[in-house]
Amino acid sequence: MTTPSTTKTDFQHQNNSSMTYDDARKVLWLRNYPRPLGELYDEGYLNQARLEWAAEKAYNPNLRQAAQLLLKQLVTEKPAKVVVSKPTFELPASALPIGIPLEQARTTPWPFPPFKGQPMGMLVETRQLSLKDFGYAAENAWGERVRQAAVALMLVRLNQMVKEPAPSAGFVKVVSGGRSYAEWKQMQINFIQGSILGAIIGATLIGLIWSLTLRSTGHPGLRLSEAVKSPLGITTLIIAIFILGVEVLGGFLFDRFVIKKMDKQIDNYRQGQKGEERTIEVILQALDGNWSLFRNILLPGRNKADLDTVLVGPSGVWVLEIKNFTGEYRNIGEQWEYRGKKRWNPYKKSPSRQAQNGAARLGNFLRADGIDQWVDSAVVWANQENPLIAENPSVAVWSLDRLSDELGNVWQDEKVPPATRLKIVEKLTKLCQRRDQTLKNMAE
Predict the structure, then answer these.
(1) What phi and psi, each to the nearest 5 degrees, are found at residue 84?
(2) What is the pTM for the complete model shown?
(3) 80 DSSP assignment
(4) DSSP per-residue string spanning 276-307
(5) Strand 335-339 vs strand 329-332: parallel, antiparallel, or unpaired?
(6) How does the average pLDDT of the chain come out, rounded?
(7) Does 230 have pLDDT greater than 70?
(8) 14, 195, 298, 398: which has the highest count of C-beta atoms within 10 A?
């Protein structure tokens, strides 16, 4: 058992591998933030949660091992009492690398009040943000771009030489296959609501026209004084009252049990659509032009379920099933459950199986053209208010707040040759274009 006084050399001897503590500090973090672990550790970016995640889930074995070493150091070390007689600042001779171009850092909106939404560069030039503000943003800002911009501009405020990253490959190429499943379902429910409401209004008009027709032919109408004078008038009055009662009762029941239920369904689909939009925003920030993103892919065949998101890049092809369920959910293996009033209940549609089936269908679709490419799958949990409880999931489950790191973890080596990527992108692009043209023809 190690003690708080354990030294770095002790860690080197305790570890069975050849990696030393100094070697671990030189290992680069994920592709979305490729800086040495030692620098990120000293800056506080690599906290215990990130190191635990990397020690368990990093695809790169060197990164996984280095994270384990740094995690041991983080758990056992205690801050030493340092007495400084005179504050001195010694700047390194070489420029420090930053993960974002300075121009992009300057145009990044500040996310906190009272300057929320204003470009960070302008706030730096006018001295409205302090080094303390930058430190807070670098550690607590939700967006990766904001954290990177805060670090970059903090170094500029300290007159530190910085080394900007090499020009990227541009932005992710986004191709849409049309409206998403959530959008189609909202339109379908709205159409059903309108049809039922139209039927009720139509029945009312028919009753009114029928009554007016009786009046015009000389038969008693709905006036009470006339209705009680003849059997036909009494019958007409009874029918009119019955129709009115049915309409009032039907309207009440329709609003109570149908409209509210449909409104809840529409709200659920709308929440799912918002989850997809938030996920796409994170993907666009984490990846570059080497990747292509396809949305709402509808593959040919009997299965009409669309694929939420397909990513095609150097390290592989991924089908992402995005979920933004309201309430408490958990995933154990392949089983998904939601919490009821007293216990956990099985969820009828397993997102894990949906993701696996989507990946298998896409793989078969590609093999039909002679493209033999393995397709991976993952579930993205987009509900940040109610985190998902996941235990040994059969399919990778990525939470939205960790999605950027997960994508950087995926992007390790080039496993798909450029020629194969080009064939896949062309095939999926043509599929989206055909569907878009079909929808336009139907609209005309």
Answers:
(1) -115, 120
(2) 0.64
(3) P
(4) HHHHHHHHHHH--TT-EEEEEE--SSS--PPE
(5) antiparallel
(6) 77
(7) no
(8) 398
Q: Report helix, strand and coil shares of the chain as percent, to nearest 5.
A: 50, 15, 35
Nearest to 50 by CA among 144, 180, 191, 184: 144
The answer to whether 157 and 105 are in contact (CB under 8 A) is no
User: Which residue has better confidence, 196 or 120?
Assistant: 120
- Helix spans in 77-143 (H): 102-107, 120-125, 131-140
Which tokens in the block code for residue 177? 């296959």
* CA-wise closest residue to 292 among 270, 314, 272: 314
Give dist(CA 407, CA 29) in Å, integer. Answer: 12
pLDDT-based confidence at residue 107 (cuts at 50, 70, 90): confident
Domain residue limits, the chain: 8-76, 96-167, 181-443
Band (111; pLDDT cuts 50, 70, 90):
confident
**Residues in CB range of 268: below 8 A, 6 or more apart:** 326
Burial pattern 104-140, b for ≥16 Cβ within 10 A else e, equals ebbebebbeeebeeebbbebbeeeebeeebbeebbee
Q: How far apart are CA 43 and CA 356, in angstroms?
A: 39
Q: What is the CA radius of gyration of the chain?
A: 31
pLDDT at 52 over 70: yes
**H-helix or E-strand spanning residue 329:** strand 329-332
